[in-house]
Amino acid sequence: MSTRPVRLGVVGLGMAGATMVQAAARHPGVELVAAADPVAPLRAAFERDFHGETVADAADLCARPDIEAVYIATPHQFHREHAILAARAGKHVIVEKPLALTLEDCDAMIGEIDRAGVTLIVGHTHGFDPAVREMRRVIQSGDVGALALIAMWNYTNFMYRPRRPEELDTSLGGGVIFNQIPHQIETVRVLGGEIRGVRAYARQLDPARPTEGLLSAFLTLESGAAASLVYSGYDHFDADELHGWISEGGAPKPPDQHGAARRALRARTRDESVLRVTQFGLGARPYSQPPHQPHFGEMVVTCARADLRASRDGVLVYGEDGVREIALDARPGAPGRREVLDDLVAAVRFGKKPLHDARWGRATLAVARALLQSSREGREILLEPRA
After folding, report:
1. Where in the sequence of the chain do the CATH 3.30.360.10 domains occur?
2. Interval 230-247 mean pLDDT
3. In Å, what is the CA distance from 248 to each residue of 95, 316, 349?
4. Judging by DSSP bridges, how do beta strands 195-203 and 147-155 pair with one another?
5. Do 310 and 293 form a contact (C-beta atoms < 8 A)?
6. Given pLDDT bands bounded at 50, 70 and 90, which one contains residue 31?
7. What CATH number should be reported for the domain whose range is 127-329+368-382?
8. What residues does CATH 3.40.50.720 cover in the chain?
9. Residue 386: what pLDDT?
10. CATH class of segment(s) 6-125+333-360
């Protein structure tokens, strides 16, 4: 098989797209060719910083014969349309989480991907993080015994970052259940396999942000293990305090940011949709290599003979002989997103089936929707086995 770089086009240059563009530009197996976005300043930033061509419309980018794969980082409601455009053009696809907003949309995307004979990878989620993948390797080695429990909790400022209107409407995929909880769902699935049942509690605490901003849930796994998830995005406590003030992306952060996102939002004088572009879109912030590993709050993984936890730079193993650390290589590029691109290259160039394929993404969405249903109906929801 050819080892030449995979020629990549990007649709969407907002917050997610900006981060993946930086990762792609630094990945030896990827050549960043072109981008599409309706916002002219974002296109100008791509042309200036990455010397690629840009177009305003996704269809024009997907039609280019010099692009092999398309990364889709558009708002959730466009994932189906843009993934199908890419597949029908014969392009391999990376789609940001969630795969889509409904299971019917997922099924339509899967059908088109299968007919086209291309690969679809769902990313980025923190299930791609190097520490999570190392924990998976340790668990599957059998050295720590059978997996019993995964406990995850995260507290952030998610609800008070600048938002587009649909991001505050649960029916349109807004709130933490469709935007943040997939990171936790995917991590549980990477480590423990498929989820059998969920019992959840979710709340909207701020009438001005009318979508779910917190969730607590108990998950049972087909393996017999269990997981507990806690997430709150209301910008009071910050879980990075428990991680030595290392941010989600792996960079140090100042320890005095409690409530800062709330205060900034109160003081804003511009539309939130505009602020989202100017503060988080491509070109808004200079890229710097994170000195530490990414994380998504705190997580302790309990196995029969040890507990596992991510450190700043690796994985801590707590066993009967004490604590040891498995160091992770400081490879260049954005950890986590770099692994998404690794999987793309492995699929396109070497025919390796990715773990996070379209059917995987559908199953993650099914869990997220079950969590919402469980909270609203006050009961456990059992999920159908994944096909």
Report:
1. 127-329+368-382
2. 96
3. 20, 18, 31
4. unpaired
5. yes
6. very high
7. 3.30.360.10
8. 6-125+333-360
9. 75
10. alpha beta
